Amino acid sequence: MPLNELKSLLIDGDPGTPESRIVRVMSERGTLSAAQIATATGLARSTVSTALAGLRRSGVVIEAAGGDTGKGVGRPATALALNPEAGTCVGIHLGLDGFRLVVADVSHSVIFEKTEELGRDYTPARAATAVKRAIDAAYAENSLRRSGLIGVGISVSGPVSPDGVVQRASIVPLWAGTDIRQTFGPVLQRPIFADNESNCAAIAEMMWGAATGCEDFVLFKIDVGVGGAIVHRGQVMTGVAGSAGEFGHMTIDPDGELCRCGNRGCLELYASFVRPLALAERLHGRRMTMDEVIALALEGDVGSRRLIEDTGAIAGRGLGMIGAIINPPLIVIGGRMALAGDLILEPLIAAYDKHTLIKRRDVDEAKRTRITIGRFTQNDALLGAVGLVLRHHGRLG
Ligand SMILES: [Zn+2]
């Protein structure tokens, strides 16, 4: 029975056995060859081969359909994946006025996706009940075994401490102080994993997006707020209280306006899309969305372009500081502002180069920080919530 064995190898059992190490690497990375598994786990080829034979016999690992991982000459390597029937996981993104849910299997295929509105200022208890109901309905509708659910990953719009408490400065103020484990644990009764939305977004970009294969990078998110994440050696840094990568709350102007976090002149006040949106609305004399402003800019509207260019320049200045501190090989721009593509990227890169320590001209290509648009600007946090479970990050119990 592959289900129980997979659960034990992935969630509950001794993580040090070769079988457990192989299953965890496959859960993190999806389809792999035996040679890639050996490299990723650091196990000898012969150990991997013996363990894989057992895992294939028990049905935990299968040959991936239609694929080989071979490049170059010779016989292509067999592509292996976890058996999608062996387990499923749920990702939840708690947003401003509701949540999104995705169900995926352990071979990284999305099975189901849904958005549920709860209205502004919904309480944590209400969210927990609604999430439970939505998971039950999703499993029933898709004829999935409820017992196959190996874990629920939760993305929160605010800093989350490593023990699962939502910190102040959450986009949803009502959630500050909420203990995710206490709120969701008794209702869901599954292993629960949680982290903030930007950290989840970074996990999605690392697993399937613009940072695939890159173990060191920074994610910089420009949306209603400005957020970010720092990934070092494949691990998202959370910080001692959960606020690592909160780039939006670096002080740019100590005498500036008051921020929702209680400090003055935070980067978020100047580099999120709140200010350009307000300016666009004033100019056009009507309510607008940021998507509309971006669409106008892409059509060539001079005023809208200027608003996005200015945002890019300020964001690049903030990123320049991050460059001086971390000097990452890669910066991925996420959030809805990233939909502006080169319109935001070009002024951002120019400002980054102007304000950071190591300039492009100082070093050759290999040592330059590459700045690129993320692959997932709309559903990164949601996919990353699934990634929390698959990568075993932010486990709360
Ligand atoms: Zn702030």
Describe the structure.
The longest helix has 25 residues, at 302-326. The protein folds into three domains: 2-85, Arc Repressor Mutant, subunit A (Orthogonal Bundle); 88-202 and 380-390, 2-Layer Sandwich (Nucleotidyltransferase, domain 5), CATH 3.30.420.40; 211-373, Nucleotidyltransferase, domain 5, CATH 3.30.420.40. Strand 3 (88-94) and strand 4 form a beta hairpin. The chain has helices at 2-12, 18-29, 34-41, 45-57, 124-141, 180-188, 197-208, 267-271, 274-284, 290-298, 302-326, 342-355, 380-390, and strands at 61-68, 78-82, 88-94, 98-105, 110-117, 149-156, 192-196, 217-222, 226-232, 235-236, 330-334, 370-373. It has 397 residues and is an alpha/beta fold. The strands form three sheets. It has a five-stranded mixed sheet with strand order 5-4-3-6-7, with helices on both faces. Helix 3 (34-41) packs across helix 4 (45-57) and helix 11 (302-326) packs across helix 12. Bound molecules: zinc ion.
